[in-house]
Amino acid sequence: MAIMTRRFNEYDLSDPKAAAQLVKRRAIELGADAVGIGNIARWDTAPLQMDPKQIMPECKSIIGMVFRVERGSLRGVEEGTYFSNYSAMGYGGITYLYMPMTVINLSKFIEDQGYEAIPMGHQSDWRGIDNNGYARKDYSRPVAPGRAQPDIMIHLRIAAFLCGLGEIGFSKMFLSPQFGPRCRVGIVLTDVELEPDPIYDGPQLCNRCMACVKACPGKCFPTDKTVKVTLAGHEVEWADLDMDKCDLTFRGAERADDGREDTYMDWRFPTKPGSWSPFYRKPRNLYNTGQAVCGSRGCTRACMMSLEARGVLQNTFKEKFRRRPQWSVDWSVPPEYSEGTRFRPEAGKESDTD
Predict the structure, then answer these.
(1) Which candidate, 199, 186, 171, places its Cα nearest to that of 307?
(2) Distance of CA 208 to the CA centre of its chain
(3) What distance in Å separates the CA atoms of residue 287 and residue 285, rounded to the nearest whole number?
(4) Are the beta carbons of 298 and 214 closer than 8 angstroms?
(5) pLDDT tens sequence across 92-127
(6) Which residue ranges of the chain lie beneath pLDDT 70?
């Protein structure tokens, strides 16, 4: 009996228009929620450390894919009862499990036809730049003159914009017309020429309502300081987000100036849980990045509710997202545990349960 293997050179990708349609259909079949294509010329002004041509000099096309974060994954954070689901399913699970399978299999499909493809997602742990895009000194060296400092990390939100998948909001979050900020982005670089999609020109998504600014628990968004860039001839602007403050807020912490030594998390200074965290200590990591204790309160949840209220998103729901008053934790008073909460009895004491 002969072995079984994949079929090679089954499809002709020489026609850019037909090839683009074929690749996009396959991406949806493999699990992407939306897919668009940008040609490499749109990256002509990319900074050295974010330039796709530094990775693949022969790159002709970039395929961008949106992967939705389920609205239900935010439910437990919204109610203040189940935080790990968003971090596991809506964050790390997509980043480290679901998205890689999709971009890998799409890349295999392209390589089966005789073209090279590079699958990429949020896996950027070795990147040679910091959260603000600056090269990390004494981290790595270019391997030759004119080469970037490894590791390259393509700006995924900008990639999604250049592939025609949506807008970049004031919050710096990528907004898709299907899900708003409720999405992650994966890409594939390839040397096959694919017909590009136009830059998004649909219904306005971000209308500068500032819901993200008002709801961010760490006050990480300045309203008087923005970043402006020109992308494929389009001027795009977003808030100059305080990444250090966001990094702290994201994990549920705020600065403690009361001289405490026992802190919420290991940091450059003492920390304490903010009113948006119910945990005495920062929970352990899920995957590498799943620490979203704040549950993206401003940049995702508040923005999503604003977009849904305006009726501009394609993924609509029978019920509104926020159905009860927003909670907060008052750490200045003792906790009040609800009826039905069961603790292990202390030694020598009778349990009050049957």
Answers:
(1) 171
(2) 20
(3) 6
(4) yes
(5) 999 999 999 999 999 999 999 999 999 998 777 899
(6) 290, 348-354
**Predicted local distance difference test score (pLDDT) of residue 353:** 46
3-state secondary structure the chain: CCCCCCCCCCCCCCCHHHHHHHHHHHHHHHCCCEEEEEEHHHHCCCCHHHCHHHHCCCCCEEEEEEEECCHHHHHHHHHCCCCHHHHHHHHHHHHHHHHHHHHHHHHHHHHHCCCCEEEECCCCCCCCECCCCCECCCCCCCCCCCCCCCCCCCCHHHHHHHCCCCEECCCCCEEECCCECCEEEEEEEECCCCCCCCCCCCCCCCCCCCHHHHHCCCCCCCCCCEEEEEECCEEEEEECCCHHHHHHHHCCEEECCCCCCCCCCCCCCCEEECCCCCCCCCCCCECCCECCCCCCHHHHHHHHHHHHHHCCCCCCCCCCCCCCCCCCCCCCCCCCCCCCCCCCCCCCCCCCCC
**Which of 191, 215, 207, 177 minimizes the C-alpha distance to 314?**
177
| Model pTM above 0.70 | yes
Answer for the pair 277, 252: CB distance below 8 angstroms, yes or no: yes
Task: Assess contact for 164 and 47: CB atoms under 8 A.
Answer: no
Q: How far is CA 324 from CA 78, 79, 80, 154, 321, in A?
A: 9, 8, 11, 39, 9
User: What distance in Å separates the CA atoms of residue 56 and residue 61, rounded to the nearest whole number?
Assistant: 10
Q: What is the biggest distance separating any 2 CA atoms in the chain, rounded to whole angstroms?
A: 79
Structure-token match 């306005």, residue found: 204
Please say whether the beta carbons of 153 and 48 come within 8 A.
no
Phi-psi region of 157 (alpha: psi -120 to 50; beta: other; left: phi over 0): alpha
Query: Which amino acid type is present at position 155?
Result: H
Place of tokens 């994966």: 186
- pLDDT one-digit tens code per residue, 35-60: 999 999 999 999 999 999 999 999 99
**Single-letter amino acid, residue 163:** C
Tell me, what amino acid is at 180?
Answer: G
